């Protein structure tokens, strides 16, 4: 066979925008159907974009690890730079490597040990604030909690109370970034006086004001601690007038990357636990073995079933549902060539629901996540934290936070879904329950 063929995939000969409408209406369903009907290497058009979906563990490993150099950040990251500049999340090459070396330090095991008591303290505060008479929106509660934890542990100030405004501004900016990435040179529109653009600029300003507030409050506190903010300030000490803007961008990016993802993971986990009382009962037995005292970081390795539950929740509802890259040159793969400039998608959501790796994929079954079961599957059949040089730098933070927060809250409360509430996964910047997660609380003790 000639090496010049495009991979198979849905073709829309009469629609110049290809799968744009389907993609906008139900992007994850569309990707799942494409992989199911056309195989694990597919190619199609979305608007002006040429897109390939790679849905085999070996292909994912190529994109993220072994052939990562053949890709650059996708358009969505280029657009994101309009909000947060070139920070760890969006930078490439040497700048990315430098930023990563600097920030990695804050996520090392010793530092996470120091953050753990703050994680538990925030969760204790939440469980004491909750009461059995009032339903709450668990999606919002988890955002509030993780924003408080990330801002306190990494930057030394607690902005939990700003969670509502921060999330609203973040969602507006994220919506813009998503939309602009569909349009070639779409970012140029941001310079035009269009009504939507005004909202975007306002949202972006609100986010930057929040970051500036974190830095100002922290500077007022004065002490030079070894947390992430002091590292950032220190690294920019000779940085001149742009330093505060750059530090602000990095603060914003970490808050954005670090709180919403974990909040979604926790939210989906509460939902799944509420639907599977047998799993929940076994989980209660594990956390009740602590005898009611709040957990510490030393308990985390023993909270094995908690970890399996979180891992399985990240399989079914991966907060980062797809990762995108752009091929810098023609990319030969198997018997095909993916053309230069194509957006290549590898999707944890689609892969984690592929029956070849996870039979009966919709079923919530933490037993899939025993160390033995995991070792029996290919490495990149499961990648909620990505992989390779851009693998989530906050992964150890996230695992510790998830275990400690779930345990602390679960010791006191048993959240139940408000009956009849629809649960529809919605892929915005992260995968979230479209209509929130209203829950009532049963007291456990
Ligand atoms: C359950 C929680 C989390 C999930 C599912 C998650 C997922 C991911 C994924 C998939 C990536 C790779 C993106 C790509 O390759 O394009 C990533 C990158 C990143 N994550 Fe996370 N993340 C989580 C928690 C966190 C936390 C708690 C922090 C920080 C406090 C964080 C900070 C970052 C940063 C800075 C990057 C960019 C790394 C780089 O480009 O070198 N994440 N995350």
Task: Describe this entry's structure for a reader.
This protein has 445 residues and is an alpha+beta fold. The chain has a single domain, classed as Cytochrome P450 (Cytochrome p450, Orthogonal Bundle). 51% of the residues lie in helices and 11% in strands. The chain has 16 helices and twelve strands. The protein has helices at 20-25, 27-38, 57-66, 75-84, 93-104, 109-129, 138-155, 163-180, 195-221, 228-235, 243-275, 277-288, 304-316, 348-352, 371-375, 395-412, and strands spanning 41-46, 49-54, 71-73, 136-137, 323-327, 331-333, 336-338, 343-346, 413-417, 425-427, 431-433, 438-443. Strands 1-2-8-5-3 form a five-stranded mixed beta sheet. A three-stranded antiparallel beta sheet has the order 4-12-9. Helix 11 crosses helix 13 (304-316) and helix 11 (243-275) crosses helix 16. It is globular, with a radius of gyration of 22 Å. The mean pLDDT is 89. The structure holds protoporphyrin IX containing FE.
């Amino acid at each position: 066979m000639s090496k010049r063929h495009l991979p198979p995939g849905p073709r829309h000969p009469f629609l110049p925008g290809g799968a744009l409408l389907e993609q906008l209406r139900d992007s994850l369903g569309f990707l799942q159907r494409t992989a199911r009907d056309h195989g694990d290497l597919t190619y199609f058009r979305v608007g002006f974009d040429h897109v390939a979906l790679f849905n085999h563990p070996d292909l994912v490993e190529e994109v993220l690890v072994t052939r990562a150099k053949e890709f650059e950040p996708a358009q969505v990251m280029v657009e994101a730079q309009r909000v947060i500049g070139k920070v760890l999340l969006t930078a490439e090459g040497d700048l990315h490597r430098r930023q990563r070396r600097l920030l990695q330090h804050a996520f090392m095991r010793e530092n996470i040990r120091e953050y753990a008591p703050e994680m538990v303290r925030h969760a204790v505060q939440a469980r004491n604030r909750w009461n059995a008479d009032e339903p709450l929106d668990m999606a919002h509660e988890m955002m509030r909690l993780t924003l408080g934890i990330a801002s306190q542990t990494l930057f030394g100030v607690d902005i939990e109370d700003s969670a509502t405004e921060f999330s609203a501004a973040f969602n507006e900016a994220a919506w813009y970034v998503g939309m602009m990435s569909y349009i070639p040179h779409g970012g140029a529109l941001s310079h035009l006086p269009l009504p939507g653009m005004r909202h975007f600029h306002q949202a972006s300003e609100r986010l930057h004001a929040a970051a500036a507030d974190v830095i100002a409050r922290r500077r007022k506190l004065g002490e030079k601690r070894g947390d992430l903010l002091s590292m950032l300030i220190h690294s920019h000490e000779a940085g001149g007038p742009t330093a505060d803007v750059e530090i602000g961008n990095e603060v914003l990016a970490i808050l954005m990357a670090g709180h919403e993802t974990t909040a979604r993971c926790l939210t989906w986990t509460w939902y799944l636990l509420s639907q599977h009382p047998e799993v929940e009962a076994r989980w209660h037995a594990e956390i009740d073995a602590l005898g009611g005292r709040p957990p510490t970081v030393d308990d985390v390795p023993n909270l094995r079933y908690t970890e399996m539950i979180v891992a399985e929740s990240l399989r079914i509802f991966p907060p980062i549902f797809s990762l995108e890259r752009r091929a810098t040159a023609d990319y030969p793969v198997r018997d095909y060539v993916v053309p230069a400039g194509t957006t290549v998608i590898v999707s944890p959501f689609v892969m984690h629901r592929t029956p070849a790796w996870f039979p009966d994929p919709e079923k919530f079954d933490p037993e899939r996540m025993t160390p033995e079961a995991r070792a029996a599957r290919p490495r990149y059949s499961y990648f909620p934290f990505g992989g390779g040089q851009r693998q989530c730098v906050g992964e150890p933070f996230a695992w510790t936070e998830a275990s400690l927060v779930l345990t602390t809250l679960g010791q006191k409360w048993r959240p139940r879904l408000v009956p009849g509430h629809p649960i529809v996964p919605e892929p915005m910047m992260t995968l979230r329950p479209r209509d929130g997660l209203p829950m009532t609380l049963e007291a456990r003790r």
